[in-house]
Amino acid sequence: MTKKEVLSVLVDNHSGVLARVASLFGRRGYNIDSLTVSATNDPDISRITIVVSGDEAVINQIISQTRKLEETRDIFALNDCRSLLRELLLVKLSANESKRSAIREVADIYGATIVDLSVDSMIVELTGAPSKIDAFLGVIGEYDIIEMCRTGITALERGIKK
Amino acid sequence: MLLTGAEIIAEVLIEQGATTIFGYPGGAVLNIYDALYEYRDKIRHIMTAHEEGASHAADGYARSTGKTGVVLATSGPGATNLVTGIATAYMDSVPLVALTGNVGTSLIGRDSFQEVYIAGITMPITKHNFVVRDVTQLADVLRDAFRIAQTGRCGPVLVDIPKDVTAAKTEFEPLGPVVIPQPALPAADDIRRAANDINQAARPIIYFGGGVVSSGAEVVLADLIHTANIPACHTIMGTGVIGDSDPLNLGMVGMHGCFTTNKAIDESDLVIAIGTRFSDRVALNTTAFAKHAKIIHIDIDPSEISKNVIAHASLIGDVGAILAAMLPMIAPAEHTEWRERITKWQTEDYVPEDSSEVLRPHQIVSTIARLAGEDAIIATDVGQHQMWAAQYCERTQPRSFLTSGGLGTMGFGYGAAIGAKIANPDRRVVHITGDGSFHMNLNEACTVVSYDLPIITVIVNNTVLGMVRQWQTVFYGGRYSSTSPERKTDFAKVAEGFGLSGVCVRTPAEFEKAFTQALADNKPIWIECLIDKDEKVLPMIPAGGTVRDMITK
């Protein structure tokens, strides 16, 4: 059964590490739904958050193949219930004066912020769990989306790992 | 001491025990070659005709000795010519360190003359690779390369070194060879559970591969097999680990394995897979493979577990250490009924017919095995001759059958034979090739002549690309698209042109005479054997098939 899995990969903070991980995924035909990379509080380590889809065997393979990379310090799947998953959305909407208040109403309900306004358009920013972003897009999609961009998921486990 | 990068390379090679390297000079490695001139008494450099040949030679050196092979090439085309050799080593888990020069750091990224991003190119075919941009890091990176190549599942590591780094100077502190960490043993309970499964099995079979060779586990494996009377079969990479004359050795499994072997896997209730990876040449149909059996997988690489075939239990670590820990828990057994069934199947095994009129491939290989002896190293190329060699080479020692198992690299054999002969000057080295494979890298004849390497090359010439043609015969209704190149190569004359001797034979008697003479002369020679182009590798199970789909004629 195909499922989505969010993987957190801690890697050495070197140039070329992302290429190595991406190359592994490309070579083995793993499907990447989203991928984010960022620095951590340790300057030697970067965190790659990858959302992949596949059945359990594929996901186990992805984990063990990625773990084999020389620059991988740790890799683990993030459990939905025990993790915080966040994504940032920027969406530019066609918004003349007549539509603005309606868009603002939707934005308020979702806790989104209007971060730019022009005569004909506005840009709305929303941070939240990917499902919340999907839901927001479902509603805001009623309006005319000019451009949009999602960062992909970044995530952390809650609490302190024992 | 203050040394240049090039001198540091030489020092670290010596420190890591790499006193023989294979390579080809060029602009970006001039500093390194200049240093090698200085170190020529301590490091032997073998120059091949082509960098690909050098990479296969370093690989053959490693496969035949267990040491790490080292190959050196210049930037750009020199580096890209290594790619096939690196990929070959990667697929067969051979420890290899590939050193490439690159243009100076100020020229990198500018599409400079002979510049390629070889680290990017080789990322998917190396265990790891490095670009050294600072001479102060060079020694440690090189040591890391040797460590990674030999740690866990072995494999190739590439180190790319810009020209200015080889010229820059830094303090060098000598160290000893890197210490290779031994993997931990699995939990004792897991080993005991696996031993219990083995003790309780009625129809167990061991299926082993190159991991047994890498681990040096042949003796303990033989002990296990003989203690519990468990029939064993092997992949092409496991050839030679258990002698052919051992009644418990069922021979090769898979696409061109024996009927009995594949039948035994099919009917077994326990498959103990050791140092092997269920490739598509063995587990042709992953869902039907050993479908009545529980599978215990013993391997050093956790990512191999349940990759192709679901394992019911696994033991991760050095296979030799695991088998040694398990052996005292294995109860002696007879498995009489199971072995009797197997013996009965063996009467149905495919047996090729001998001929005294024409040369038949199995007779060529059997004659080589008999005359060259057990101590000889056989290196092959890829294709029909490779399978015939695997089926009939009768090796009794590991590291004595060198072949490109995973990548299937035509052109591998001559280079590998050169590496093996350099590493084992006192052993016979026979290179078995086909006319198709040999055309790819026969240029290495000049290396064989230059270094006076008495390698006997046996060219099994059917004038066609035999294996592809065999598939065209069986699966494409005899539409022989581009497999009959109509080449007019006179191998004996080509040999002469390179400065070695060549002879062409047509009958078993002629071959035996020529091969006996070649052994006596102990000089480089090509023996061309003309065989019928319709000779097939049999038996054969089609890709995705099972033992029930076996083709025997």
TrEMBL record, chain A:
Residues 6-83 form the ACT domain. GO terms for molecular function: acetolactate synthase activity; acetolactate synthase regulator activity. It comes from the Archaea. The keyword Amino-acid biosynthesis applies. Pfam families: ACT_AHAS_ss, ALS_ss_C. GO terms for biological process: isoleucine biosynthetic process; L-valine biosynthetic process. CDD domains: ACT_AHAS. InterPro entries: Acetalactate_synth_ssu, Acetolactate_synth/TF_NikR_C, Acetolactate_synth_ssu_C, ACT-like_dom_sf, ACT_dom, AHAS_ACT, AHAS_small-like_ACT. Keywords: Amino-acid biosynthesis, Branched-chain amino acid biosynthesis, Transferase. Catalyzes the conversion of 2 pyruvate molecules into acetolactate in the first common step of the biosynthetic pathway of the branched-amino acids such as leucine, isoleucine, and valine. Dimer of large and small chains. Belongs to the acetolactate synthase small subunit family. This is Acetolactate synthase small subunit. It comes from Methanorbis furvi.
TrEMBL record, chain B:
Its cofactor is Mg(2+); thiamine diphosphate. This is Acetolactate synthase. SUPFAM superfamilies: DHS-like NAD/FAD-binding domain, Thiamin diphosphate-binding fold (THDP-binding). It is an enzyme of class 2 (transferase). CDD domains: TPP_AHAS (cd02015), TPP_PYR_POX_like (cd07035). Residues 4-116 form the Thiamine pyrophosphate enzyme N-terminal TPP-binding domain. The keyword Secreted does not apply. Binds 1 Mg(2+) ion per subunit. It catalyses: 2 pyruvate + H(+) = (2S)-2-acetolactate + CO2. The keyword Metal-binding applies. GO terms for biological process: isoleucine biosynthetic process; L-valine biosynthetic process; sulfur compound biosynthetic process. Keywords: Amino-acid biosynthesis, Branched-chain amino acid biosynthesis, Magnesium, Metal-binding, Thiamine pyrophosphate, Transferase. Its EC number is 2.2.1.6. Residues 381-529 form the Thiamine pyrophosphate enzyme TPP-binding domain. Gene3D superfamilies: 3.40.50.970, TPP-binding domain. Belongs to the TPP enzyme family. The gene is ilvB. One of its GO terms (cellular component) is acetolactate synthase complex. It comes from Methanorbis furvi. Residues 191-325 form the Thiamine pyrophosphate enzyme central domain. GO terms for molecular function: acetolactate synthase activity; flavin adenine dinucleotide binding; magnesium ion binding; thiamine pyrophosphate binding. Pathway: Amino-acid biosynthesis; L-valine biosynthesis; L-valine from pyruvate: step 1/4; Amino-acid biosynthesis; L-isoleucine biosynthesis; L-isoleucine from 2-oxobutanoate: step 1/4.
